């Protein structure tokens, strides 16, 4: 895989997502009209953000925020800064957030946002003006009880802090719970930074217990060495797993005995801090190991493959070559639906994104709760509550898989749709009104 993955993202990711919805719906009791609602995002904001550049010129950046469905609570979902942000993809990501929040039973609906920008080309001050401008332009499209953003690809806690600060200025009161993933001193939660990786790690620990794995025997490859990828790598390495390959946008490295993950993270982050907001260094420069491309990493001979970068990287072109028996989807939508069919035929176990990376939104929920109560939790409390939720829901999915003879992704959608269907049903469906007449 090269630095740009646009050619691998399905043309119509939202339609791709709806295909999966229809497949799963056959196994649920969801009312037809609830399904109908899920096929149409509830509201879409398309904004143009005028931004003053350091040389005095003005640039207009395009951004989106999609609120997919708020039947179960306020919209919740990240904001992505990337040159390939596109509305169809944001709609798909918002749809997945609706399902993800339902799978882990959080009182949220789904939303997502993004700006078409290459943030690595902006100075920190330009980035701040753009981020604050996005919030001003969105206006009351977001809010603690309407829609609550969080970080995603190439956005971080400092950007979330700027966004919370700008919103607070707009409404003239400190409103910590409008955004999650903030820095700790301004309302962030302990454990949020690593929560996405930690949630994925808890999924694998459950599997370890169920399948009797010995960590040293398990070889892991991770595509993407950012927030999600680094933390799952660190936790697995700590438990003795052999993380044999990792990559970033510039390519990957491989060592058959396992890489020294803490050293790699330390070196990469040391250089990042020199770059102030973004890492522009590649893991390829940091450790003595063999070089491999992103595509080779996906096809490598490992036991567990963790796509933790962008969507649409496992397609019908490379799905037949995937050797890993277990795929943990830390990224959102890394496997297209056609590839999914191939992997399912090959009896691969895919732990789907809507559970595998739900650790982030779960601790975002904890952050939102702490902001609203003013009572802040210790890191151990955050971790143990997260572990309890992930283990509970993974176990529930195994039961659905067995009972209905489904793959884990379909089981996850079934669980999500049943919960969303219940919420929609509480406000009345056609059958309710017909009985009243
Ligand atoms: P990040 O910006 O911290 O890291 C992204 C990583 O992907 C970087 O290492 C980057 O170099 C790499 N990358 C970018 N383009 C690539 C390419 N074409 N090929 C290979 N690697 C590439 O982002 P993140 O927060 O770690 O998010 C990664 C994935 O996890 C995304 O799909 C995101 O939606 C998903 N996710 C993140 C969170 C979270 O809380 N951070 C929560 C849920 C899901």
Itemize the secondary structure elements and their pairings.
Blueprint: H1 13-25, H2 32-38, E1 43-52, E2 58-69, E3 75-82, H3 87-103, E4 110-116, H4 124-138, E5 147-151, H5 157-171, H6 195-211, E6 219-223, H7 227-238, E7 242-248, E8 251-254, H8 261-274, E9 290-292, H9 294-298, E10 304-307, E11 326-328, H10 337-345, E12 349-351, H11 353-356, H12 358-373, H13 379-404, H14 408-426, H15 430-436
Parallel strand pairs: 3-4, 3-5, 6-7, 6-10, 10-11, 11-12
Antiparallel strand pairs: 1-2, 2-4, 7-8, 8-9
Helix pairs in contact: 1-3, 1-14, 3-14, 4-5, 6-7, 6-12, 6-13, 12-13, 13-14
Bound molecules: nicotinamide-adenine-dinucleotide.
Summarize the entry for a quick read:
The chain is an alpha/beta fold and 437 residues long.
Describe, in plain words, how this protein is organized in 3D.
- With 437 residues, this protein is an alpha/beta fold.
- The protein has a domain of 175 residues: 3-Layer(aba) Sandwich (Rossmann fold), CATH 3.40.50.10860.
- It is 45% helix and 16% strand.
- It is built from 15 helices and twelve strands.
- The strands form two sheets. Strands 9-8-7-6-10-11-12 form a seven-stranded mixed beta sheet.
- Helix 3 packs across helix 14, helix 6 packs across helix 12 and helix 6 crosses helix 13.
- The chain is globular.
- It starts with 12 loop residues before the first helix and ends with a helix.
- 52% of the residues are buried.
- The N terminus is likely disordered.
- The site of nicotinamide-adenine-dinucleotide has 27 residues, from helix 7 and strand 7.
């Amino acid at each position: 895989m090269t630095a740009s993955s646009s050619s691998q993202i399905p043309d119509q990711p939202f339609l791709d997502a709806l295909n999966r919805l229809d497949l799963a719906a056959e196994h649920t009791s969801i009312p037809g009209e609830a399904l109908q609602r899920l096929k149409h995002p509830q509201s879409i904001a398309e904004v143009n953000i005028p931004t003053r550049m350091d040389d005095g010129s003005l640039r207009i950046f395009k951004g989106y925020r999609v609120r997919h469905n708020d039947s179960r609570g306020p919209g919740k979902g990240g904001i992505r800064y990337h040159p390939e942000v596109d509305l169809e993809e944001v709609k798909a990501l918002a749809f997945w957030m609706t399902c993800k929040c339902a799978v882990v039973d959080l009182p949220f609906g789904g939303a997502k946002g993004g700006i078409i920008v290459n943030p690595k080309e902006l100075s920190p001050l330009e980035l701040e003006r753009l981020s604050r401008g996005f919030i001003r332009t969105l206006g009351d499209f977001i809010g603690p009880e309407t829609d609550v953003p969080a970080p995603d690809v190439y956005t971080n806690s400092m950007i979330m802090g700027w966004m919370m600060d700008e919103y607070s200025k707009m409404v003239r009161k400190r409103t910590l719970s409008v955004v999650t993933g903030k820095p700790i001193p301004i309302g962030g939660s302990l454990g949020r930074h690593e929560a996405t990786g930690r949630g994925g790690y808890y999924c694998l620990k459950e599997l370890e217990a169920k399948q009797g794995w010995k960590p040293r025997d398990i070889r892991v490859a991770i595509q993407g060495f950012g927030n999600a990828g680094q933390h799952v790598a660190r936790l697995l390495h700590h438990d003795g797993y052999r993380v044999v390959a990792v990559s970033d946008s510039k390519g990957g490295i491989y060592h058959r005995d396992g890489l020294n993950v803490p050293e790699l993270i330390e070196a990469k982050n040391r250089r990042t801090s020199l770059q102030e907001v973004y890492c522009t260094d590649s893991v390829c420069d940091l450790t003595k190991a063999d070089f491999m491309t992103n595509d080779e990493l996906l096809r490598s001979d490992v036991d567990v493959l963790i796509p933790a970068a962008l969507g649409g990287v496992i397609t019908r072109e490379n799905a037949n070559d995937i050797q890993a028996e277990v795929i943990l989807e830390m990224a959102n939508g890394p496997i297209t639906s056609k590839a999914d069919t191939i992997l399912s035929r090959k009896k691969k176990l895919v732990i789907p994104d809507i559970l595998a990376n739900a650790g982030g939104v779960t601790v975002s929920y904890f952050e939102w709760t702490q902001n609203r109560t003013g009572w802040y939790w210790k890191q151990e409390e955050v971790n143990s509550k997260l572990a309890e939720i992930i283990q509970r829901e993974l176990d529930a999915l195994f039961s659905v898989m067995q009972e209905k003879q489904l793959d884990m992704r379909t089981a996850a959608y079934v669980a999500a749709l049943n919960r969303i269907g219940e919420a929609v049903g509480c406000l009345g469906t056609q059958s309710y009104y017909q009985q009243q007449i």
